[in-house]
What we know:
The chain has six helices and no strands. Helix 1 runs parallel beside helix 3 (74-107) and helix 1 runs antiparallel to helix 4. Helix content is 86%, strand content 0%. It is elongated and about 65 Å long. It is mainly α. It starts with a helix and ends in a 10-residue tail after the last helix.
Amino acid sequence: xxxxxxxxxxxxxxxxxxxxxxxxxxxxxxxxxxxxxxxxxxxxxxxxxxxxxxxxxxxxxxxxxxxxxxxxxxxxxxxxxxxxxxxxxxxxxxxxxxxxxxxxxxxxxxxxxxxxxxxxxxxxxxxxxxxxxxxxxxxxxxxxxxxxxxxxxxxxxxxxxxxxxxxxxxxxxxxxxxxxxxxxxxxxxxxxxxxxxxxxxxxxxxxxxxxxxxxxxxx
Length: 219
């Protein structure tokens, strides 16, 4: 009986990992589509989002069944609750990837804006945070989760830098207002990815240590 229960916990973990792989891939493709003005990549991100949504539903179904039938305790209970939280955040990251892909589609039909170093750094930071948050979950690494939390301030600062820079640019380049606004939206989406990666890291700490650090970024 106990062996079957732990097999089902492992199945739940596999669902999360499958969801994580697809979500990270979607974000990478969305960033590449945005940088390279590649509509085919953008369309691929948008088209494949439904599979991630379905995996979130599968995680919910498996988690609720285990909670109802097995009445888990201690770490097993935290693991199931943590998986449910992480699935929600992964689905939201995937949604942000779709939003970035949609901005990429729009901007690909317009003249390019000047290169934006802060936006590029924000994209790299958000992607690194997501990758490390997933790795922290896989390895049950609280230190790595804490590092992800600490990176969130940088993502916030970069988003503000992008916003200020584009607002100044729009003042002098009125024809570029629409393109600038779309780019600001993409920046905000990437900043939200950083927030959601932080949430995943916080869930890892909750699962491993039984400590709720939501909104605190400390171990």
